[in-house]
Amino acid sequence: MDFLDYRKKLGIGFCDEEKFKYFLARIYNIMNMIAEDYSIETISPEEYAAFCDITGTAIDYAALNNAYTCQERYRHCLATLDRHNRDLRDFLSYYIAFANSIKAKKEDEHAWIRGNFIAILTKALEESHIPFETLVDGEEYFIFPKGAIELDFALVSQPLEWLKDYPKSHKTYCTALKQYSDGIFVRDVADNLRKTLEGFLQEFLCNDKNLETNKNEICKYLGAQGIDAGISGLFQPLINAYKNINDRIAKHNDKVDKKVLEFLLYQTGVLIRMVLVVKQAEMEEPTNAD
Question: Is the dihedral of CA 100, 101, 102, 107 positive or negative?
Answer without folding.
Answer: positive
